[in-house]
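Running this now, will post back.
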Amino acid sequence: MSVEKLLLAAPRGYCAGVDRAVQTVERALELHGAPVYVRKEIVHNKHVVETLRQKGAMFVDELDEVPNDATVIFSAHGISPAVRDEARRRKLRVIDATCPLVTKVHLEAIRYAREGYSIILIGHEDHDEVIGTLGEAPESTALVSTVEDVDRLEVADPERVSFITQTTLSLDETRDIVQRLKEKFPNIQGPAAQDICYATENRQVAVKAVVPLCEVLLVVGSQNSSNSRRLVEVCEKMGVPAYLVDDLTEVQPQWLENIQTIAVTAGASAPENLVEQLVEFLQRRGFAQLEEMEVKEEDVRFNLPAELTRTVQLQTVARV
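Update: finished.
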C-alpha cells in the first residue's frame, strides 16, 4: 500500500515586511504600554490580528477613532498623504510600519507625477495598499486590474505615460497587463525593477514547482490576503485544485479523499505555527511522508521603523 505524501513548499509564510510590522506592534506595546492603536489590520491575517489584539493593540478603520495624544501605527500596506496629514494635524504619536517595498512604489508615483506623467497603477480596487498608493497622486493616476481595463484607458498625453504595480499581484496577470500597456503606449515608462515584492514572487515560484507533483494544494492565509489568493489562482491555472484556509479547522474531509500527494504553502502574512498545525493534522490523516521543497532561500530583513528606534535611544539616554 502506498504512503500518502505531503509536500511543503518553501519559501512560504512571513515575509520581511510582515515580520517587521508585527514586531513593530509588539515593540510599541512594550515601550508605550496598552493600548496602542493600529489603523487597519497591521497585516491581512485574522490570527495575527487577534493575537495582537489580546496583547493590547486596538485596531481601527480611521484616525477619528484614535484618541488625542495616543500612539497610532500605520499598517504594512501604506497610507495616503491625507491620512499622514491628519495624524500630524492632531499631533498623534505615529509609528509607520509601511513595508519598505510599498514605500518604494509610493516614491515612484510621486516622481512620475512630479515629472508630468499619467500614472497607470496595476492593482485591485479597494485593497488597502492600492488606496494608499492612489492617494499620492490621485489626479494623475488611473487604476487598471485587467487587460480589458487597459483597452479602455484614455490619457492626457500618450507619450508621457508610466506604470507602477501593487506589490502582491500575480506575476502572470501583471505580465499580461504590462505587455498590453507597452503595446498601447510604446514609450511607457516603468520602474527599473518590477514592483511585485520578492516574497510574493518567491511564493508563486514555489507553488509552480510543487503543483506538477501534487493533486491538491492547501494555502494557509486569510481571505482578505491578496498574495494568498494569488497562490490559489496560480495553482488553479495549472489545473490543480487549491483551497485557501485560515487554519486546519477549515479543511474539508472531501478535499483529502483519494489523494496520494498533497502540498501545503502559506501566504506572506501567515505565521509558521499555523502551517505546523496543519502539517500535524494532515500527518495524522495518513500523509506521513513529509518532503520540503525549497526553490529559493530568503535572507531579507528590514529594520524597525525609525520612530521606534528613536524612542529606545531616548529611553536609554534617560536611564543613563
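Residues 125 and 207 are 25 Å apart (CA to CA). More later if anyone needs it.
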